[in-house]
Amino acid sequence: MVAMAADYRVASRHNAKVVDCVADAKSSIRCFRQNAEKLGIHPNKIAAGGGSAGGHLAACTAVIPTGDDPSEDQSISSQANAAVLFNPALILSSAGIKDQLPLSAADETSLMERLRERIGADPKTVSPYHHIRPGLPPIIIFHGTADTTVPFATVKLFAEAMTKAGNQCRLVPFEGAGHGFFNFGRGDKTAYKETLRLTDEFLTELGYLTGKPTLE
């Protein structure tokens, strides 16, 4: 297994919008695939992963069909072959699902207005939930049920819609856990170890890894 961390533009350093971040994430997948032989990796066994905003970007590389840098070779796919998501933001638009979101009308209006400014486009364009369709890559999601930053109900809606469309999507709830519960420095590291073990098993099921997890 080869692990690579992709840097991307952010608002604080580059005055970037979310659409720029999505383009950078998709560019990284394309770059890895284009240079697969040089990197010693399988071009069709590229799994994207990330937490929170990074989880959103990883999800976008698996689900969003648009948003690529137009200057790049579009014949090389920017779609990840699988995704491992840690408390990801997966619903960035209320279009068509207002009644299903765990938000009051006032909260929903305020949130969507803020998102439009940060995103730099119609939020629906980078909302993974709104691009679910058959034939998407397998996804595993780790999420705390007490997450107040990204409500658990939003990832549950995403997972249910993915399954309904015939895709492989496994949602692993962590009861009572908040945002960022999986990080190395949190608590007794139990969640950190458990999410890595389950990630290992997920990638093994897909044929990307072999053997049993050895994390102690």
Shape: globular
Largest sheet: 4 strands, parallel
Mean pLDDT: 91
Task: Give the termini distance in whole angstroms.
Answer: 18 Å
Topology pattern, helix = H, strand = E: HHHEHEHEHEH
Strand order of the largest sheet: 1-2-3-4
Overall number of strands: 4
Number of helices: 7
The percentage helix is 25-40%
Question: Uncertain regions: pLDDT < 50 for 5+ in a row?
Answer: none
Which class do the helix and strand fractions yield?
Answer: alpha/beta
Molecular structure report:
The chain has a four-stranded parallel sheet with strand order 1-2-3-4, sandwiched between helices. The protein is globular, with a radius of gyration of 17 Å. It is of the alpha/beta class and 216 residues long. It starts with 10 loop residues before the first helix and ends in an 11-residue tail after the last helix.
